[in-house]
Design goal:
Layout (H helix, E strand, L loop, with lengths): L1 H20 L1 E9 L10 H18 L3 E9 L4 H13 L5 E4 L3 H14 L2 E4 L16 E3 L4 H14 L4 E7 L2 H16 L3 E8 L7 H10 L3 E5 L2 H13 L8 E4 L4 H7 L1 H4 L3 E4 L7 H13 L7 H20 L5 H10 L2 E3 L3 E5 L5 E2 L2 E6 L12 E7 L1 H4 L14
Parallel strand pairs: 1-2, 1-3, 3-4, 4-5, 6-7, 6-8, 8-9
Antiparallel strand pairs: 10-14, 11-12, 12-13, 14-15
Helix pairs in contact: 2-12, 3-4, 5-6, 8-9, 12-13
């Protein structure tokens, strides 16, 4: 009897020790679930997060993860309020996604104030790793400087040396126009004009007429999601590309091209850090993702959610505690990144995740084997070339 009691006590102690050894982590997926960016964020980000948690559990079951999600409606005040509530009341340790630059900048500030962690996988503004950088934020997928260097630089080298911008009238569009203009000018091109478009908007007709009338060789679309889709469709209706002007999609996702179809989007040049058909690793993940998303393939943002959570959980496992957000992010920067979607990389002191980007061209309909067979690769751009140099961003974390 005594032996049974002792054995039961020992088992209870082991069970308690195992429970105590678990690191509890709560992650909030905060994106656009109902608006213009829902295809590149939305439910796909939640699915990608679940896949990351499932995969990490196979590697290290000592980390127990709870996921929650919400819709920030592309409104900075809503995004900031949700982040604050999650941190203060709901015990969230890390927020991920943050599509829409104005919302991401708001989440960025709340996260620093509460000393939690934020992995931005959806917003483009390079200011997140520039003047607005904090010890609590990692910018994972792309930014306006990388897009400008990739697409802007390539178009000028192809002869597109005069530009007119259609710019979404909020921080992302303005930053993207600023950064692309700098690249165009640096490469010997000239910006002949621009027009700010309401965000979001369905009617680009008057703006496209201004761009057409400018005579610019390239019309730069400094927008994203549904705005980009509408602008490209309506440019086709106006016969803009047939008239000799080129469209530069400065932030285009595979979901946008899928919605447009290769007949409309063929020949469009764009820069992305991820494409579902790049290699065996991207294809395997994308097949799993598609089974939960009615056949839809993941965007680069969804890939960023998956990879960002995997790396965050590696830091959580190493530290055994994620309550100090700045400390957790510091550990993320210390550990080299390595995942099947972005490969090997690093996170710089300013929070910028460094990996290769790819210059793609949309296939002609005759080249495409199925509706998701969209891109051919024109070039691989090394991460240390496509992202802004560390000493040029104005991040206060960068010494000297």
């Amino acid at each position: 009897m005594l032996r049974s009691v002792l054995l039961a006590t020992a088992l209870s102690a082991l069970t308690l020790a195992a429970a105590q050894a678990q690191t509890a982590v709560k992650i909030g997926v905060l994106g656009d679930r109902s608006g213009v960016y829902s295809d590149i964020s939305g439910e796909g980000s939640v699915v990608a997060a679940r896949l990351a948690v499932e995969d990490f559990a196979k590697i290290d079951p000592s980390v127990k993860v709870e996921l929650i999600s919400a819709d920030h409606q592309n409104k900075p005040d809503v995004g900031a309020a949700l982040a604050r509530q999650w941190y203060d009341r709901d015990g969230v340790d890390m927020v991920i996604d943050g599509v829409t630059s104005s919302v991401a900048l708001a989440i960025n500030q709340v996260t620093r104030e509460k000393n939690k962690a934020f992995i931005d996988t959806g917003a483009g503004t390079a200011d997140l790793t520039g003047p607005q950088c904090t010890p609590n934020t990692v910018h994972w997928v792309y930014d306006t400087m990388a897009l400008a260097n990739g697409t802007g630089g390539a178009m000028v080298k192809r002869g597109g040396d005069t530009w007119f911008f259609l710019t979404a009238d909020y921080v992302f569009g303005q930053t993207l126009q600023r950064d692309t203009s700098a690249v165009v000018t640096k490469n010997g091109g000239k910006v002949v004009g621009s027009v700010k478009t309401p965000f979001p908007t369905a009617d680009f007709s008057s703006f496209l007429l201004q761009a057409q009338g400018s005579g610019a060789k390239v019309i730069g679309l400094a927008n994203a999601g549904g705005d980009t889709i509408n602008a490209i469709k309506q440019a086709g209706e106006f016969g803009i590309t047939e008239g000799g002007q080129a469209l530069a999609g400065l932030l285009v996702f595979s979901s946008d091209v899928y919605s447009l179809g290769t007949k409309v989007a063929q020949g469009l040049v764009l820069t992305e850090p991820f494409y579902w058909d790049l290699n065996d690793g991207t294809r395997a993940f994308s097949d799993r993702f598609a089974k939960q998303m009615n056949g839809r393939k993941p965007t680069a943002n969804h890939a960023g959610v998956y990879a960002g959570i995997l790396h965050y959980l590696k830091a959580a496992a190493a530290l055994k505690d994620v309550k100090d957000g700045a400390k957790t992010v510091a550990k993320m920067k210390e550990i080299p990144t390595d995942d099947p979607l972005f490969g090997k990389g690093t996170i710089r002191v300013d929070g910028r995740k460094i990996h290769d980007m790819y210059l793609f061209e949309v296939k002609k309909p005759a080249e495409s084997k199925d509706p998701w067979d969209l891109y051919k690769t024109l070039a691989t751009i090394p991460g240390n070339e496509v992202f802004r140099p560390l000493n040029e961003g104005g991040c206060p974390l960068v010494k000297g």
